[in-house]
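Quick one: Beta-galactosidase from Chryseosolibacter indicus, structure tokens please.
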Amino acid sequence: MLLRFTFISVVVITAGIPAYSQKKSYQTEIKYLSGTDNSHTVTWDFWCTGGRKSGYWTTIEVPSHWEQQGFGGYNYGRDYVTYGKNFRFEEEKGLYRYNFTIPKHWKNKTINIVFEGSMTDTEVKINGKVAGDIHRGSFYRFSYDITNKLNFSEPNLLEVTVSKMSSDGSVNNAERLADYWIFGGIFRPVYLEAHPKEHIVWCAIDAKADGTFSMNASLKNTSSQRQLVVDIVDNNGKTISTLQSASKTDTVAKVNGQIMHPLLWTAETPHLYTAKIALKKGSKILHQTTEKFGFRTIEIRKGDGVYLNGTKIKMKGVNRHVWWPETGRCVNSDIDLMDAKLIKEMNMNAVRCSHYPPDKAFLQICDSLGLYVLNELAGWQKAYSTETGERLVKEMVKRDVNHPSIIFWSNGNEGGHNKDLDDDYAKYDLSNRPVIHAHHRPGNHFNGIDCNHYEDYYSTKKILADSLIYMPTEFLHAQDDGGGAAALSDFWELHWKEKKGAGGFLWALVDEGVVRTDFDGAIDVNGVNAPDGLLGPHREKEGSFYSIREIYAPVKIKMNKISDTFNGEIILENRYHFTNLNQCTFNWSLINFRKSVEFLSGYDTLQNGIVSAPSIKPLDSGKLKLPLPPEWKNYDALMLSAYDQSGSEIYTWTWKIKPNEKLISTILTYDAVSKVEATETDTTVSMKASGITVSISKKNGLLTHLTNDFSTKLSFKNGPSLVQGKSRFKSLTHYKDDTTYCVKVSYEGDLKYILWRMQPSGWLEMEYEYQLNGSFPFTGVTFSYPENFMLGIKYLGKGPYRVWKNRMQGTTYNVWQKMNNNAHTGSGPWIYPEFKGYYADISWVEFNTVEGKFTVATKGDNLFLRLFNFYALSGKQPHPELPHGDISFLDNIPPIGTKLALNINTNTSSLGPASEPNHVHSNIKRTLYFYFGTPKTSGENRQFVMPSINILTD
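--- reply ---
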């Protein structure tokens, strides 16, 4: 779990900038009246009109949401469902006051007051005078020219009234009656801008992939004798071209030019340039400003796909709310950077800013790190009116127009589309980016792209076979442990291989849990409404995070296991769009897993090396040849790590070299310690060896009692019972077999037999066979054990996260150690990895209990371990159904569904091939090995040799 405010430093925008920065006379100067973000605030006077701490003047930190400062009341956006469509917080307003002074040298400048974001209606007064019209709309930068309202010889009074609900019904419909937390207050910075009298107001840049550069600059108070000069500066600070305005109207100057061989901006190559823009009178600079931008060309080729710089791209995206639990939508650039880096760590290349424009810092980070951005006008199933929407589109586009990361404007969400606004974006966006509709109803496609939400796998295939490009802006809803990466592999392969598949955006990045100041800091996700993340509220990584990382890895490896003919060659598929794999680095390691009796989990690296990456162009495949030593088969496993051109890990794959029979050989020893003793009563047959006594029921052949010399009783019993299928006890025989003693139980029905064999060493073998014919959610056998007796486990298998049939990716072979916890994904406690669940490819597992330890091992492959009761999706009926019992050893496990792709009380088959139930038409035979205590190990295991250490734990 991340600490609450342990952030990564980054130089981007306002965070950390002093309250006043003095520049040269021809530059814009900034004076902050508020703080710059949620961790750098300024105290203002405050009066809340309703709810907690209301009805008197006190103080508040700005920026903030007043609920998170202890004022007013909370409401989740869907409160109109509870309270009716006329539900309003009209009585809850915030009155702000703040005194400030103006630098004397600003006297001949134009001074604006700027608000980056305020919820919702905002009235501003300076020295008792209204600054301008009330601003309606929460997520948009707005400003007023207050030059003629300021005092330069004495302090000035700023008064702001913020109404939680808007007087514009369309603003409430678009922003506040939505499926997310709703707050009040000035939640982004407030500052003064001082410009020279003649100045550049804003610029729109269009820089194409062919080097064509165009810019429109809006000017104020200028005459016809002025000229605009633009220096294009590369990332090394070198001026590569100087351009001058070709023409000028009264308010707009235009600059055009051609740059030779620019470095192009993509998510894989985020090359940025700086435009130094100077308004001049002859050689004198009147005003100078800068804009970051990138050269790139975006195209929608209808019936084909989305193209960037002439190359088709596919979105590996996620929806992101601007969020931090303690401070809501008031965040800082370190949080923005953390989120962008986490998205990149999942090998994603895109993010949708749902359902409103984000902070400026996040877009700057997407520019510099490389993420495709879908920037969205608010409108959650209801749209702004045309009058209001035209103003807010203008505010959004003017602020964000020059970010190369933005490749789409989204005109609202799920029916919140005012189609009258579709052509407004191009009025301010010189590059004329595509506009899309993020919708959830078929038939609402726009600009050749269908963005319909939450289609299943088979309806997705139908859409892709039709005439439209398909790019769902929401799919595989990740409430609780459902969605996210569940079935994602099937969906992604479909989009990757189909011509008109453009990828999509998972819902959503984080669980939107708010720290409730009215409930002693408890985190509230509003029931099933907001636990929708791949990450917890403080960015705790869920299992889907790692699954997505493997599924979306641009280095695709299909090798699931090392075959008998493996010669060190691994087939690589390049799933980058622009990058040759020779830009990547590959490291290989030969490792040995640590054994169960050793204190540490993890593995030891015994040999490793770096291998030259082959030249494999995007969309091509090729071979990576590992220079393995001749004795490589003597090691437990092979690891391969891929790193991108920046040195960031793409993914690490691990393949077992030795079969389970050899991997468990050091713990599964049959050294004779004592003879096996057998006793029989009216109800049981008991076998005892090396201090361990096992009792088998003569009534049903199941394990009924366990004791050893170190514990009076072990509660592991009532198995093996089939989790699927029927059996009827037929007969029981018991006999001595050489040095062992056997109890053989025969059944009628699906279970054929159980053969118990006690070794003199104390190891108990359990061989069983069953036959099923049909489709089943799970198959295998189960035992009972009290959950509250379980302290934790250590195991050799895939982990550390649990798996589902349709979410097997993201886990890797290792010796993992886990403590028992009661985490439920999405609703806390956010302790990951969860303890209860299904675990894949178990070789051995050591259970640590209040009654002592016991170990279970297998020589066979593909054994799943089930631990206790858990579920993926909460609802009227938890999903999916579970096997009976507490600890199960399974040959097949179930898939999971998602919140919106299906009714969770039905099966998951609509989500694709991996989401179908298990089709079983065969005999299944397996042997498990039990030791009820701490097993003796071979001499090999007692030598703890550790040339180099890599510890991988949860």
